[in-house]
UniProtKB/TrEMBL annotation:
Belongs to the glutamine synthetase family. It comes from Maudiozyma barnettii. This is Glutamine synthetase. The keyword Ligase applies. Residues 24-103 form the GS beta-grasp domain. GO terms for cellular component: cytoplasm. Its EC number is 6.3.1.2.
Length: 371
Protein backbone atom coordinates (compact mmCIF):
# COMPACT_ATOMS: atom_id res chain seq x y z
CA UNK A 1 0.00 0.00 0.00
CA UNK A 2 1.40 3.39 -0.96
CA UNK A 3 2.25 6.04 1.62
CA UNK A 4 -0.64 8.52 1.57
CA UNK A 5 1.60 11.19 3.11
CA UNK A 6 3.71 11.48 -0.04
CA UNK A 7 2.28 13.63 -2.81
CA UNK A 8 1.80 12.19 -6.29
CA UNK A 9 4.05 14.71 -7.99
CA UNK A 10 4.25 12.87 -11.33
CA UNK A 11 0.47 12.85 -11.64
CA UNK A 12 0.32 16.49 -10.57
CA UNK A 13 2.80 17.55 -13.25
CA UNK A 14 0.35 17.15 -16.15
CA UNK A 15 -1.96 19.62 -14.44
CA UNK A 16 0.85 22.07 -13.64
CA UNK A 17 1.60 22.15 -17.37
CA UNK A 18 -1.92 23.33 -18.25
CA UNK A 19 -2.35 26.84 -19.68
CA UNK A 20 -3.65 29.24 -17.00
CA UNK A 21 -5.34 31.47 -19.63
CA UNK A 22 -3.48 34.58 -18.53
CA UNK A 23 -4.40 34.20 -14.89
CA UNK A 24 -1.77 34.24 -12.12
CA UNK A 25 -1.89 32.39 -8.80
CA UNK A 26 -0.59 34.34 -5.80
CA UNK A 27 0.03 32.23 -2.70
CA UNK A 28 -0.26 34.57 0.31
CA UNK A 29 1.78 33.45 3.31
CA UNK A 30 1.84 34.84 6.85
CA UNK A 31 2.99 34.08 10.42
CA UNK A 32 0.20 32.95 12.74
CA UNK A 33 -0.26 33.38 16.49
CA UNK A 34 1.86 30.34 17.33
CA UNK A 35 4.88 31.32 15.24
CA UNK A 36 4.02 28.97 12.38
CA UNK A 37 3.34 29.68 8.72
CA UNK A 38 -0.05 29.70 7.03
CA UNK A 39 -0.94 30.24 3.38
CA UNK A 40 -3.79 30.42 0.91
CA UNK A 41 -3.97 31.01 -2.83
CA UNK A 42 -5.68 33.75 -4.83
CA UNK A 43 -6.22 34.17 -8.57
CA UNK A 44 -5.11 37.46 -10.11
CA UNK A 45 -5.94 38.63 -13.62
CA UNK A 46 -2.44 39.58 -14.73
CA UNK A 47 1.24 39.18 -13.94
CA UNK A 48 2.53 41.29 -11.07
CA UNK A 49 5.43 43.66 -11.68
CA UNK A 50 5.40 45.75 -8.48
CA UNK A 51 4.33 45.34 -4.85
CA UNK A 52 1.63 48.02 -5.05
CA UNK A 53 -0.27 45.95 -7.62
CA UNK A 54 -1.01 43.27 -5.02
CA UNK A 55 -4.38 43.57 -3.30
CA UNK A 56 -4.84 43.36 0.45
CA UNK A 57 -6.70 40.28 1.64
CA UNK A 58 -8.05 38.83 4.86
CA UNK A 59 -8.52 35.58 6.76
CA UNK A 60 -10.19 34.12 9.85
CA UNK A 61 -7.88 35.03 12.71
CA UNK A 62 -9.88 32.97 15.20
CA UNK A 63 -8.60 29.85 13.45
CA UNK A 64 -4.94 30.93 13.68
CA UNK A 65 -4.79 32.16 17.29
CA UNK A 66 -4.70 35.78 16.14
CA UNK A 67 -8.20 37.04 16.95
CA UNK A 68 -11.39 36.14 18.87
CA UNK A 69 -14.32 34.59 17.01
CA UNK A 70 -16.45 37.65 17.70
CA UNK A 71 -14.05 39.89 15.77
CA UNK A 72 -12.10 37.48 13.63
CA UNK A 73 -11.11 39.33 10.45
CA UNK A 74 -7.36 39.86 10.15
CA UNK A 75 -6.02 41.71 7.12
CA UNK A 76 -3.07 40.69 4.99
CA UNK A 77 -0.92 43.53 3.66
CA UNK A 78 1.66 42.36 1.09
CA UNK A 79 5.23 43.34 1.95
CA UNK A 80 7.30 41.23 -0.47
CA UNK A 81 6.78 38.74 -3.29
CA UNK A 82 8.86 36.05 -4.97
CA UNK A 83 8.61 33.73 -8.00
CA UNK A 84 6.77 30.54 -7.03
CA UNK A 85 9.12 27.54 -7.49
CA UNK A 86 6.23 25.06 -7.24
CA UNK A 87 3.74 26.52 -9.72
CA UNK A 88 6.38 28.45 -11.71
CA UNK A 89 5.51 30.69 -14.66
CA UNK A 90 4.18 34.08 -13.56
CA UNK A 91 2.82 32.62 -10.32
CA UNK A 92 4.17 34.15 -7.11
CA UNK A 93 4.48 33.70 -3.37
CA UNK A 94 3.41 36.79 -1.43
CA UNK A 95 4.69 37.49 2.08
CA UNK A 96 2.13 39.51 4.01
CA UNK A 97 1.94 41.34 7.33
CA UNK A 98 -1.08 40.88 9.58
CA UNK A 99 -3.20 43.86 10.68
CA UNK A 100 -6.32 44.22 12.82
CA UNK A 101 -9.48 45.79 11.40
CA UNK A 102 -8.70 49.10 13.15
CA UNK A 103 -5.50 49.43 11.14
CA UNK A 104 -3.12 48.50 13.96
CA UNK A 105 -0.57 45.72 13.51
CA UNK A 106 -1.69 42.39 14.93
CA UNK A 107 0.16 41.64 18.19
CA UNK A 108 2.02 38.78 16.48
CA UNK A 109 3.22 41.09 13.70
CA UNK A 110 6.82 41.81 14.76
CA UNK A 111 7.89 42.98 11.33
CA UNK A 112 6.18 46.33 11.84
CA UNK A 113 8.39 47.44 14.76
CA UNK A 114 11.58 46.02 13.27
CA UNK A 115 10.98 47.93 10.03
CA UNK A 116 10.86 51.22 11.98
CA UNK A 117 14.30 50.55 13.44
CA UNK A 118 15.86 49.64 10.13
CA UNK A 119 14.39 52.72 8.46
CA UNK A 120 15.76 54.96 11.22
CA UNK A 121 19.23 53.40 10.99
CA UNK A 122 19.42 52.88 7.23
CA UNK A 123 22.71 54.81 7.06
CA UNK A 124 24.33 52.10 9.21
CA UNK A 125 23.79 49.61 6.35
CA UNK A 126 23.40 46.75 8.80
CA UNK A 127 23.86 43.31 7.25
CA UNK A 128 22.71 39.98 8.60
CA UNK A 129 23.37 36.37 7.74
CA UNK A 130 21.25 33.72 9.48
CA UNK A 131 22.29 30.08 9.82
CA UNK A 132 19.03 28.13 10.05
CA UNK A 133 19.40 24.68 11.62
CA UNK A 134 16.49 22.23 11.55
CA UNK A 135 15.73 18.55 12.14
CA UNK A 136 13.92 16.05 9.93
CA UNK A 137 11.24 13.72 11.34
CA UNK A 138 9.20 10.98 9.69
CA UNK A 139 5.39 10.92 9.69
CA UNK A 140 5.40 8.92 12.93
CA UNK A 141 7.52 11.51 14.77
CA UNK A 142 10.71 9.47 14.71
CA UNK A 143 13.91 11.21 13.66
CA UNK A 144 14.13 10.62 9.93
CA UNK A 145 16.29 7.65 8.98
CA UNK A 146 17.09 6.63 12.55
CA UNK A 147 16.67 2.96 13.55
CA UNK A 148 13.18 2.24 14.83
CA UNK A 149 13.33 2.15 18.61
CA UNK A 150 17.06 2.80 18.62
CA UNK A 151 19.81 5.27 17.91
CA UNK A 152 22.46 5.71 15.22
CA UNK A 153 26.18 5.72 15.98
CA UNK A 154 27.38 8.66 18.14
CA UNK A 155 27.96 12.11 16.70
CA UNK A 156 31.16 12.57 14.75
CA UNK A 157 30.84 11.46 11.10
CA UNK A 158 27.63 13.34 10.27
CA UNK A 159 28.71 17.02 10.17
CA UNK A 160 29.23 17.85 6.48
CA UNK A 161 29.14 14.08 5.96
CA UNK A 162 29.06 12.18 2.70
CA UNK A 163 27.78 8.66 2.13
CA UNK A 164 25.04 6.27 3.16
CA UNK A 165 24.68 5.98 6.91
CA UNK A 166 26.08 9.48 7.37
CA UNK A 167 23.63 11.57 5.37
CA UNK A 168 19.84 11.41 5.42
CA UNK A 169 17.27 12.95 3.03
CA UNK A 170 19.68 14.75 0.74
CA UNK A 171 16.91 14.75 -1.88
CA UNK A 172 14.79 17.02 0.35
CA UNK A 173 17.70 19.35 0.99
CA UNK A 174 18.69 19.62 -2.69
CA UNK A 175 15.11 20.32 -3.74
CA UNK A 176 14.84 23.08 -1.14
CA UNK A 177 18.15 24.59 -2.26
CA UNK A 178 16.97 24.86 -5.88
CA UNK A 179 13.55 26.20 -4.88
CA UNK A 180 15.19 29.05 -2.92
CA UNK A 181 17.58 29.96 -5.70
CA UNK A 182 14.76 29.95 -8.26
CA UNK A 183 12.79 32.38 -6.09
CA UNK A 184 15.72 34.76 -5.62
CA UNK A 185 16.36 33.97 -1.97
CA UNK A 186 19.94 34.84 -0.96
CA UNK A 187 20.61 31.27 0.11
CA UNK A 188 24.38 31.24 0.48
CA UNK A 189 24.95 27.61 1.42
CA UNK A 190 23.83 24.36 3.05
CA UNK A 191 25.43 21.60 5.11
CA UNK A 192 24.60 18.50 7.11
CA UNK A 193 24.86 19.22 10.83
CA UNK A 194 26.41 17.41 13.81
CA UNK A 195 23.33 15.37 14.72
CA UNK A 196 22.23 12.90 12.03
CA UNK A 197 19.11 14.12 10.15
CA UNK A 198 19.86 17.67 11.20
CA UNK A 199 20.69 20.17 8.45
CA UNK A 200 21.42 23.84 8.06
CA UNK A 201 20.91 26.44 5.36
CA UNK A 202 22.34 29.94 5.43
CA UNK A 203 20.53 33.03 4.16
CA UNK A 204 22.35 36.29 3.58
CA UNK A 205 23.95 38.66 3.61
CA UNK A 206 20.73 40.65 3.59
CA UNK A 207 20.18 44.25 4.63
CA UNK A 208 17.75 45.22 7.36
CA UNK A 209 14.16 44.00 7.12
CA UNK A 210 14.94 41.92 4.03
CA UNK A 211 16.69 39.40 6.30
CA UNK A 212 13.53 38.45 8.18
CA UNK A 213 11.48 38.40 4.99
CA UNK A 214 13.82 36.02 3.22
CA UNK A 215 14.23 33.65 6.14
CA UNK A 216 10.48 33.26 6.58
CA UNK A 217 10.01 32.58 2.87
CA UNK A 218 12.91 30.08 2.87
CA UNK A 219 11.22 28.30 5.79
CA UNK A 220 7.97 28.20 3.86
CA UNK A 221 9.74 26.63 0.89
CA UNK A 222 11.34 24.06 3.18
CA UNK A 223 7.98 23.00 4.61
CA UNK A 224 6.46 22.82 1.12
CA UNK A 225 9.30 20.72 -0.27
CA UNK A 226 9.32 18.36 2.71
CA UNK A 227 5.54 18.00 2.40
CA UNK A 228 6.03 16.37 -1.00
CA UNK A 229 8.49 13.83 0.45
CA UNK A 230 6.36 12.99 3.48
CA UNK A 231 8.94 14.50 5.86
CA UNK A 232 8.24 16.77 8.84
CA UNK A 233 10.43 19.78 9.64
CA UNK A 234 11.20 20.69 13.26
CA UNK A 235 12.71 24.00 14.32
CA UNK A 236 12.71 23.03 18.00
CA UNK A 237 16.04 24.03 19.61
CA UNK A 238 16.39 20.71 21.42
CA UNK A 239 14.43 18.10 19.48
CA UNK A 240 15.98 15.25 21.51
CA UNK A 241 16.22 16.05 25.20
CA UNK A 242 17.95 12.80 26.18
CA UNK A 243 21.26 11.54 24.87
CA UNK A 244 24.43 13.24 23.73
CA UNK A 245 22.92 15.06 20.76
CA UNK A 246 23.35 18.66 19.61
CA UNK A 247 20.50 21.13 19.67
CA UNK A 248 19.51 23.43 16.82
CA UNK A 249 20.22 27.14 16.60
CA UNK A 250 19.95 30.07 14.23
CA UNK A 251 23.35 31.71 14.58
CA UNK A 252 23.12 35.37 13.64
CA UNK A 253 25.97 37.08 11.81
CA UNK A 254 25.99 40.87 12.03
CA UNK A 255 27.94 43.80 10.60
CA UNK A 256 27.48 47.50 9.99
CA UNK A 257 29.32 49.47 7.32
CA UNK A 258 31.79 50.70 9.98
CA UNK A 259 32.51 47.13 11.10
CA UNK A 260 33.20 46.08 7.51
CA UNK A 261 35.72 48.87 6.89
CA UNK A 262 39.41 48.77 7.93
CA UNK A 263 39.64 49.54 11.64
CA UNK A 264 36.17 48.10 12.15
CA UNK A 265 37.25 45.97 15.09
CA UNK A 266 36.66 48.85 17.49
CA UNK A 267 33.03 49.01 16.35
CA UNK A 268 32.69 45.24 16.79
CA UNK A 269 34.11 45.50 20.33
CA UNK A 270 31.71 48.37 21.08
CA UNK A 271 28.75 46.32 19.82
CA UNK A 272 29.73 43.35 21.97
CA UNK A 273 29.96 45.59 25.03
CA UNK A 274 26.45 46.88 24.33
CA UNK A 275 25.16 43.32 23.87
CA UNK A 276 26.67 42.26 27.20
CA UNK A 277 24.53 44.86 28.99
CA UNK A 278 21.27 43.61 27.40
CA UNK A 279 21.85 39.87 27.60
CA UNK A 280 18.56 39.19 29.42
CA UNK A 281 16.49 41.26 26.98
CA UNK A 282 17.98 39.45 24.01
CA UNK A 283 17.53 35.99 25.50
CA UNK A 284 13.80 36.65 25.96
CA UNK A 285 13.47 37.16 22.20
CA UNK A 286 15.86 34.40 21.14
CA UNK A 287 13.35 31.55 20.86
CA UNK A 288 11.05 29.34 22.94
CA UNK A 289 12.61 26.47 24.93
CA UNK A 290 16.07 27.88 24.29
CA UNK A 291 17.05 27.08 27.88
CA UNK A 292 17.04 23.41 26.86
CA UNK A 293 19.76 24.21 24.31
CA UNK A 294 21.88 26.93 25.97
CA UNK A 295 23.38 24.71 28.65
CA UNK A 296 27.09 25.31 28.06
CA UNK A 297 27.37 21.94 26.31
CA UNK A 298 27.13 20.89 22.67
CA UNK A 299 28.77 24.02 21.22
CA UNK A 300 26.67 26.48 23.21
CA UNK A 301 27.28 29.07 25.91
CA UNK A 302 25.31 28.97 29.14
CA UNK A 303 22.13 31.01 29.06
CA UNK A 304 22.96 32.55 32.44
CA UNK A 305 26.28 34.11 31.44
CA UNK A 306 27.33 36.37 28.59
CA UNK A 307 30.69 35.66 26.96
CA UNK A 308 32.65 36.50 23.83
CA UNK A 309 35.77 35.08 22.24
CA UNK A 310 37.76 34.65 19.04
CA UNK A 311 36.92 31.38 17.23
CA UNK A 312 35.12 30.16 20.37
CA UNK A 313 31.97 28.21 19.56
CA UNK A 314 31.23 27.87 23.26
CA UNK A 315 30.82 31.63 23.68
CA UNK A 316 27.70 33.79 23.36
CA UNK A 317 29.44 35.89 20.70
CA UNK A 318 32.08 34.45 18.39
CA UNK A 319 34.54 36.64 16.53
CA UNK A 320 35.85 34.71 13.52
CA UNK A 321 39.61 34.16 13.51
CA UNK A 322 39.91 35.92 10.14
CA UNK A 323 38.13 39.01 11.50
CA UNK A 324 40.44 39.23 14.52
CA UNK A 325 43.43 38.90 12.19
CA UNK A 326 42.31 41.48 9.61
CA UNK A 327 40.81 43.89 12.15
CA UNK A 328 37.40 44.28 10.55
CA UNK A 329 34.38 42.27 9.37
CA UNK A 330 31.50 40.87 11.43
CA UNK A 331 30.60 38.94 14.58
CA UNK A 332 28.36 35.93 15.21
CA UNK A 333 25.70 35.79 17.93
CA UNK A 334 25.38 32.08 18.76
CA UNK A 335 22.54 32.44 21.28
CA UNK A 336 19.43 32.50 19.01
CA UNK A 337 17.46 29.24 18.82
CA UNK A 338 16.38 27.61 15.59
CA UNK A 339 12.73 28.63 16.17
CA UNK A 340 13.32 32.39 16.43
CA UNK A 341 11.17 35.02 14.81
CA UNK A 342 13.91 36.67 12.72
CA UNK A 343 12.17 40.05 12.94
CA UNK A 344 12.58 40.00 16.74
CA UNK A 345 16.22 38.95 16.63
CA UNK A 346 17.38 41.30 13.88
CA UNK A 347 15.24 44.09 15.31
CA UNK A 348 16.66 43.97 18.84
CA UNK A 349 20.16 43.54 17.41
CA UNK A 350 19.73 46.74 15.43
CA UNK A 351 18.26 48.50 18.46
CA UNK A 352 21.13 47.45 20.75
CA UNK A 353 24.00 48.04 18.33
CA UNK A 354 22.72 51.13 16.50
CA UNK A 355 20.52 52.76 19.17
CA UNK A 356 16.91 52.93 20.31
CA UNK A 357 14.39 55.16 18.57
CA UNK A 358 11.21 56.84 19.73
CA UNK A 359 8.00 54.76 19.52
CA UNK A 360 9.81 51.45 18.97
CA UNK A 361 11.05 49.03 21.62
CA UNK A 362 11.81 45.48 20.51
CA UNK A 363 12.20 44.23 24.08
CA UNK A 364 8.49 44.96 24.63
CA UNK A 365 7.41 42.87 21.65
CA UNK A 366 7.52 39.72 23.77
CA UNK A 367 5.19 41.32 26.33
CA UNK A 368 2.83 42.52 23.61
CA UNK A 369 2.57 39.04 22.16
CA UNK A 370 2.03 37.45 25.57
CA UNK A 371 -0.73 39.87 26.61
Amino acid sequence: MSDVSIEKTQILQKYLDLDQRGRVIAEYIWIDGTGHLRSKGRTLKKAITSLDQLPEWNFDGSSTNQAPGSDSDIYLKPCAYYPDPFRRGDNIVVLAECYNNDGTPNKFNHRHEAAKLFAAHKDEEIWFGLEQEYTLFDMYDGVYGWPKGGYPAPQGPYYCGVGAGKVYARDVIEAHYRACLYAGIELSGINAEVMPSQWEFQVGPCTGIDMGDQLWVARYFLHRVAEEFGVKISFHPKPLKEGDWNGAGCHTNVSTKNMRAPGGMKYIDSAIEKLSKRHAEHIRLYGADNEQRLTGRHETASMTNFSAGVANRGASIRIPRSVAKEGYGYFEDRRPASNIDPYLVTGIMCETVCGAIENADMSKEFDRESS
